[in-house]
Amino acid sequence: DGAALRWCISLVLCASFLGLGMSIAVLGPTFPNLAANVGKNVSDIYYIFVGRSLGSLVGSMIGGVLFDCMNASLLLALSMLGTTAGLYAIPWCNDSLLLTILMSVIGGSMGILDTGGNVLALNTWESEAGPHMQALHFSFAAGAFLAPILAKMALGGSESDQLAGAEKTNQSVLKLVPTASAASATPAPNDPNAEEFLWSYIIIGTYILITSIFFFVLYSKTSSAKDKSKASEKKNRLAKYHWPLVSLLFVFFLFYVGAEVTYGSYVYTHAMVFAEMTESEAAALNSVFWGAFAVCRGAAIFGAAFLSPCTMIVLSLISSAASSSALAFFAHYRASLWGGTAVYGASMATVFPSGISWIEQYTVVEGKTASLFVVGAALGEMCIPVAVGYLQGRFHHIPIVMYTAFVTSVVTVVLFPVMYKLANAPQENDSKQVSDSEIQKALLSSPRHTEDEEDEEDVREWNDADFEVIEMNDKLKNSLMDTSHRIPGDSPAEVSLQPHLDNVLGDPPVVAGGSPERQNGNVD
Question: Compositional bias of type Acidic residues: which residue ranges (predicted)?
């Protein structure tokens, strides 16, 4: 029953992350229709992305606190209900401010799901969580891939040119800024196709609602007391440098996610400006990056069953460093650009889930800790692309995107050995327990050997004493027998010696030719 429950939890989590990916990716192709629905231009409602990103940050932090206080399944069910309510309300929203509020609510619910889902998967499978973490994040990538297709089906294919604005990312808090082609294709207000396009929100919302019902069923099968007792047991293995390790992984995810989103967002522009590719070639290059990302993440589900999280991170970092070096210094070669892009996308696929699985082996990953990882990833995807866009605007002739990929790869390669050193530092409690056990063994073993030796010596001494007494008794008895043979009858000397012999020998003396009774009679 326990194994079946764990598999049910894992399947429901994957289904929820599939809906999470669809909820985020659907904003790209429907962004122009949202603008038309509120009577605005695309450039006038950019702040809805800011609202959703801030909501994700706040939701991640709140979810980290709530996850340690209440049942995980109940918290995830409520967060998905919040996402469903927001998705249902968006098609009928005609005010830009209300649309921003709804996006913030959806972002907050997604932040809670992203934080709680990772922690619940770790708590459910513990040391076996590697493949399930990879499956969890692959489900998100699959949802991000399906969302544009779903949007196209809802419209009937009449606006397929707007689907190019959908971007697939690895984190559930990633913002999807529409491309220039989508921004220029803003339909006029009250476009009849807009309402059909927005039906995709209803479909995705219904799917998430059904998934939340399964979380409520799981809540009825689990108890918060059990979760708290398990959490209290895991506190005993807190790493010696827990917070420095968590802080470094926070920075690690910030650079990693920032580099991934930056490259996925700007490789299309870089290919057209610096590599002088056509639009179709640039789009194909962008698809190669995300395609390699998705394929490698799916393969990592099976690879995690044979490789440790540390090994997968090391392989990803080596591939990332090699491919980013080729992109930074040899991108003017077409083969280097295409090959480097494919390898770079594949190297990014497994880092985030493997990083969470790796740190869980050394220290406790609770709700607050997981929320820091999600917040770090969110800050990376918000700050680094903005900084790259600003620098690229200032320095037109420098491939800032490729140099950013190289610098972030160097930073992550340097950070991981430091984290590994901190994670493997011996704990004070462990060393104290080892020393105490050694002392106890020494104390228990030494007296035992001493007592045994003393007992053996005492036995030898007693045996020697017994032999001496026996020898002395034999000598006395022999001498008495000789005397009795030489002197017939009783004599005063024999009578005087008899009490002493009685005490020594324990028997009345036997005189030749008589008995004890007779001897006593003679004495009387």
Answer: 452-462
Q: Where are the domains of the chain?
A: 1-157+194-222, 237-426
* Phi-psi sector, 39: left (phi>0), alpha (psi -120 to 50), beta: left
Cα 38 to Cα 34: distance, rounded to the nearest angstrom: 7
Q: Check if the beta carbon of residue 201 is closer than 8 Å to that of residue 93.
A: no
Instruction: Give which of 234, 211, 209, 171 is closest to 367, Cα–Cα.
Output: 234
- Please check whether the two domains, 1-157+194-222 and 237-426, share a CATH topology: yes
- The yes-or-no verdict on residue 5 having pLDDT over 70 is yes
Q: What is the pLDDT of residue 460?
A: 57
**Two structure tokens written together for 286:** 């962008």
171 three-class SS: coil
Give the residue carrying structure tokens 């606006």.
159
Residue 357 has pLDDT above 80, yes or no: yes
Q: Cα–Cα distances in Å, from 382 out to 15, 57, 258, 287, 426? A: 26, 11, 7, 22, 37
Question: What pLDDT does 186 receive?
Answer: 38
CA–CA distance, 384 with 386 (Å, rounded to integer): 5
**Whole-number Cα distances in Å, 331 to 274, 395, 410:** 9, 18, 18
Please tell me the distance from the alpha carbon of residue 170 to that of residue 408, in angstroms, as a whole number.
17
Residue pLDDT, tens place only, 229-288: 454 455 556 777 888 899 999 999 999 988 988 898 788 888 888 888 888 888 888 888
**For the ranges 99-113, 138-152, 226-240, 482-496, the one whose mean pLDDT is highest:** 99-113
Q: How many residues does the chain have?
A: 524
Fold of 237-426: Growth Hormone; Chain: A; (1.20.1250)
Phi and psi, residue 277, nearest 5°: -85, 160
CA torsion sign, 257 to 258 to 263 to 269? positive
Q: Which residue has the tokens 């004495």?
A: 523
User: pLDDT per residue over 463-519, tens digit each?
Assistant: 555 545 455 555 555 554 554 454 444 444 444 444 444 544 444 444 444 444 444
